[in-house]
Design brief:
It is built from four helices and eight strands. By secondary structure, it is an alpha/beta fold. A hairpin with a 5-residue loop joins strand 2 and strand 3.
Length: 161
Amino acid sequence: MSDSVRDDVVLSPEEVLRNSGVPFTVLDHVPIVGQRDAETKLGLATEQLLKTMVFRTADGTFVLAALPVTGRVNYGRLARAAGVSRSSLRQAAPEELALLGMEVGGASPVCDRPGVTVVFDASVAAMDVVYCGSGRADRTVRIEAARLIELVGPTIEELSS
């Protein structure tokens, strides 16, 4: 990429966190993809793990949904919270994650790209310390839920079915 295209550069979630000054730590580990890997390979308490699901709408807008790793997203509730129609939501393709500074297995609720809608399940607001994606499948962020919410400024709704 040439320097003349710098406007298209999106920071990784980890870079956004570093630049924010919000305290967090990063755990290095074997690459993980999905809930089963998170539970079996990380050795962390499942109730502290957040998953971030990445969606794209028909008009190209990204929607990030963060909820406990054991939760199941209710797509109708997510669409209402994001202000989009349910029929316009589709799971983002793996190659689209790069547009957010992320890779498969590293999806994060922290995002630098303008115009991205972020929705947190209401249960996250009651959590203490959480573990979420860093943008990479081999690194996980440990952060206080309240500080994460303060940084991201998500819409907070009941997302789980």
